[in-house]
Amino acid sequence: AEGRAGLARLEAGDAIDVVLTDLNMPGMSGWEVVKAVRVRWPHLPVAILTGTPDLLEEEREPVDVIIQKPVRLDTLRDALARLRR
User: Fold this and answer.
1) Based on C-alpha coordinates, what's the Rg of the chain?
2) pLDDT in tens, 33-65
């Protein structure tokens, strides 16, 4: 639903294989989510989804994969396969 909810699931110890976060969200940006994940769970793969690629130019945390919206199922599968390498 939003970044803080996702981070709460990580804090609770839920088994998470990859973080998929939107770039623009209410309350907490995708970059803020990525930064928090990198600090606390540095080896957890992170992918960011965006429909506003112009915002990718701002200073940001490194991510493993960037997926542009609209997302097609084959594109999502390919991105997740790249994370497993």
Assistant:
1) 12
2) 999 999 999 999 999 888 877 666 666 678 888
Q: Say if CB 19 and CB 46 are below 8 A apart.
A: yes
Please check whether residue 13 is in contact with residue 75, taking contact to mean a CB–CB distance below 8 angstroms. Answer: no
Using CA atoms, how far apart are residues 74 and 32, in angstroms rounded to an integer? 27
Which SS3 state, helix, strand or coil, does residue 19 take? strand
Reported as a pLDDT band with limits 50, 70 and 90, residue 71 is: very high
Element (H or E) spanning 48, and its range? strand 46-50
Return the biggest CA–CA distance within the chain. Answer: 34
Alpha-carbon gap, residue 26 to 33, rounded angstroms: 12
Alpha carbon distance 44, 38 (integer Å): 8
* H-assigned helices in 1-85: 3-11, 30-40, 73-83
